[in-house]
Amino acid sequence: MNRNTGILIIAVIVIVIIGALAAFMMPSAETATASQTLMVINNNAPDHWAKSVVVMENVTKKDGSITNVYVESWKEPSTGQSVVNLTKELGYDNEALPAGTTFRMKMWSEPYSANSTGEVNMNLSLNGGDENHIDNETTKFDIIASHVLYQLPADITQGKTEITLDAAKGAAFLEGMNTIYVEVIVTVNADGSVTITPVTQPVLCELIAGIS
Questions:
Q1: Nearest 10 degrees: Cα torsion 60, 64, 66, 72
Q2: Residues 6+ apart with CB under 8 A from 166
Q3: What secondary structure letter does DSSP report for 87?
Q4: Which tops the pLDDT comparison, 4 or 55?
Q5: Count of other CB atoms within 10 angstroms of residue 88
Q6: pLDDT at position 37
Q7: Domain boundaries, the chain
Q8: Contacts 24+ apart (CB under 8 A), 76-79
Q9: Which of the pair, 27 or 98, is modelled with greater confidence?
Q10: N or C: the chain end with fewer CB closer than 10 Å?
Q11: CA dist 117 to 27, 113, 122, 123, 134, Å?
């Protein structure tokens, strides 16, 4: 009896030690990511895909250098979303961009469909901030405009977002865009939200020559 009790006690101790080690070695949740600064583009239209090319101009990296951020994204109908993690792209680790950070954001967008033709109403929304603010209706900027449909490329079967700081690759993103154009000023606020100030409301235009 005593021997069995001793074995049981030893077994319990071993289990406790193993459990403690497992808990210690388990990777912790990245709670700090909640503070990262994001820019989000949503396609709210139910009848077409949306392609967008974005240039965020003269954004300050954590090392103090100035860069442009170039984005090409394809977004599915109704639920398609493109997320740009500026914290990651600009080297801020898990920190939000500093309060007062301001940059100009230019965006060109086109509608696409695999089996439809004609003209449709594009319905995009632009928002930003940390995870607690990217769904905030009060900071959202809506982009609604009519445009003729283009044929969806066969290799586009799911949403995707490509981001680069390379100007040559960014210029390649912009090639051939004949599209709906908008321009806004984005300012990062101390509470993690952003303020989006329209400069150019949605207009149909040829690709604007020259990007700084």
A1: -50
A2: 70
A3: H
A4: 55
A5: 15
A6: 98
A7: 35-206
A8: 76/43, 76/49, 76/158, 76/159, 77/43, 77/45, 77/46, 77/47, 77/48, 77/49, 78/43, 78/44, 78/45, 78/46, 79/43
A9: 98
A10: N
A11: 50, 7, 14, 17, 33
Residue 29 tokens read as 């949740």
What's the mean pLDDT in 155-176?
96
Amino acid, single-letter form, for residue 169? K
**Structure tokens belonging to residue 212:** 């700084």
The residue with tokens 């090639």 is 175
Categorize the per-residue pLDDT at 202 as very low, low, confident or very high, splitting at 50, 70 and 90: confident
DSSP 8-state assignment for residue 209: S
| pTM reported for the whole predicted model | 0.80
Residue bearing tokens 């954590």 = 62
Q: Identify the three-state secondary structure at position 181.
A: strand
pLDDT digits (tens, 9 = 90+) for 119-141: 999 999 999 999 999 998 888 99
- Confirm if 49 and 109 have CB atoms less than 8 A apart: no
Buried b (16+ CB within 10 A) or exposed e, 116-154: eeeebebbbbbbbbbeebbeeeebebebebebebbebee
* 80/86 Cα distance (integer angstroms): 19
